[in-house]
Amino acid sequence: MSENKMNIQWYPGHMTKAKRQMQEDIKLIDIVIELLDARLPLSSRNPDIDDLAKNKYRLVLLNKADLADDSITDKWMEYFKSKGAFCVKINSQKGQGIKQINAVVKEACKEKIERDRKRGILNRPIRAMVVGIPNVGKSTFINAYAGKSATKTGNKPGVTRGKQWIRLGKDIELLDTPGILWPKFEDKSVGLKLAFIGSIKDEILNTTELALELIELLADKYSGVLSKRYDIEESDKVKNLEAVAIARGCKKKGDEPDFDKAALLILDDFRSGRLGKISLEEPS
Fold first, then answer.
1. Tens of pLDDT along 270-281?
2. For 26-64, b where at least 16 C-beta lie within 10 A, e where not — what string?
3. Which of 30, 34, 42, 110 is the least crowded, having the fewest Cβ atoms under 10 Å away?
4. Closest Cα to residue 261, out of 280, 278, 247, 272?
5. pLDDT (tens digit, 9 = 90+) per residue, 14-62?
C-alpha cells in the first residue's frame, strides 16, 4: 500500500462517556466477551480493552467469519488461544457458532464456578460484558445469543448508546456496551482498514480515495478478485476504478465515468463479501 495513506481519526464525544462507564461496570463482571471483525482482528481490537479487562476471563469472538479467509481465521484462532483467551469464530447474522458459546463461557469461568460452589453459592449467574468497536456486530450477536430481539440493532456505527443488561436463562447475564474506538490511531493503516469495513462513517470520508486504497491492497494480497468480479483487465488502481465504472455503467453526464459511484460499488461489494472471502491482516 502507498505511504500516502488517508489520515483517519474519529472519536465522537459519547465514546469518552462510554469508556468511563465501562471502567465502573467492569467491577461487576466475571468475563469479557470481545467481538472482533474476523477480517482484521488486530485493527478491530480496542487496545484500551486489555487494560480495562485485566484479571477478567476473556472470550474473543471472531465475527463475520463468513466474510474472512478461512485459513487466516484459523491462524487467528491459534493466536488468541496462545494469548490465554478462549476463541470462537461466528457469523451472528446467520447464527453460526452461537450455540457453542454458553459452553465456552462456562469453561472459561470454571474456576469462578468452583470457588462459588465451595462457598455454598449455587446458581449465581456468570456476568459477562460484551465489548467491541462500532459496527462490529455486537447488537446482532446479542440478539442471536439471547434468542430474541433484546437490543436495538442497526447497520450504522453508533446505534447502541446506553447500558443494557440482558438475562439469558439462569446461567448468564450479559451487559451490552456502546461501541468505542480509541482516541487516536497511532498507525494510519488501522484507521484505513476500519474505514474499509464500515466502522467509521462513510459520510466523513472521501470514499473515492478510500476505494483506491482498497484496490491497491487487494492487488497486493488478492490479485485477480476485481477482474473476476467485474470482468476487467487489472492495471493500476486509478485505471481499475475507471474500468469498474465503465463495466458497471457508472456514468456522469456526457458519458464520463463516475468514479464516486464506482468507488461506493467496490466498497459495498467488499463489505458484503461479493468480492470473496478476504482477510486484511494475519498474525505476524
1. 999 999 999 999
2. beebbbbbbbbbbbbbbbbbbebbeebbeebbbbbbbbb
3. 110
4. 247
5. 667 777 777 888 888 999 999 999 999 999 998 888 888 888 999 999 9
